[in-house]
Hints:
- This protein has strands spanning 2-5, 9-10, 14-20, 35-41, 50-53, 59-63, 68-74, 83-92, 98-109.
- The chain is mostly beta strands.
- The chain has one domain: Immunoglobulins (Immunoglobulin-like, Sandwich).
- Strands 1, 2, 4, 5, 8 and 9 form a six-stranded mixed beta sheet that branches. The protein has a three-stranded antiparallel beta sheet with strand order 3-7-6, with no helix packed on it.
Amino acid sequence: MYTGALPAVSNRETWSLAVTVTDDTGVAINLTGATIVIGVREPEALSPFVTYTSGDGKLVITDAVNGLFALNANLDQATFPPGNYEVGVIIKLASGVKRTLVVATLPVVDGVANAS
């Protein structure tokens, strides 16, 4: 499991996250039939205020056999004002085994400019 801080992201851009899921020896875990959920919450909150689930169009398993998934979610100032957020990533494998992959902070900064 990764703990720590994710790279900062602007609240006016697409938050892109690409992950390769591996076991303790570095071998890719097959994600065929898996479900991945990413939750984002304010520090110390009990529940996420935003959740991304594999297959929702934003969180996609890009190469199941090689353990790859990616998130591409457009952020906005109303939902993500500047600050630090807590992020959790959990995976439920086809076997039913659940694994927490990430528990980390996500710094969100005001991006100043908007793209049209």
